[in-house]
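S.,

Sequence below, as promised.
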Amino acid sequence: MKQILASALIAALPFVLTGPSQAAEAMNGDQFERYVEGKTLYFGLGGNAYGVERYLPDRKVQWSFLDGKCKDGEWYEDAGQICFVYEDNPNPQCWSFFRDGTGLRAVFENNPESTVLYEVEQSDEPMLCYGPDVGV
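The prediction came back faster than expected:
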């Protein structure tokens, strides 16, 4: 899977380097839900693998930084943005999502100058999540 993700990141590199189209309109909650529900999306940042999120029914999600540690959460629409809250952080993380080419572009609205993610792969399979830490 890492090889597929690496290939997808390389294929997306020209788009990342040239930048997104400014004409795209942000997705609303219904559009976002239709696009993501039941999928696992892998995201890249600046040509590197960044993370993966599984979109479950009823706007539930599961996120991982590709390290096998998964966080449960949920998303909702607020003022035209898609906001996420997770079990370990109740502060909303709000994004604007755009359809670009064959995938999504996500702009982190809490600090739009710092993070723009690109969808590099999607799957119908669940993501890898290890159980809770065990031991002493």
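The chain has a mean pLDDT of 84.

Coffee later?
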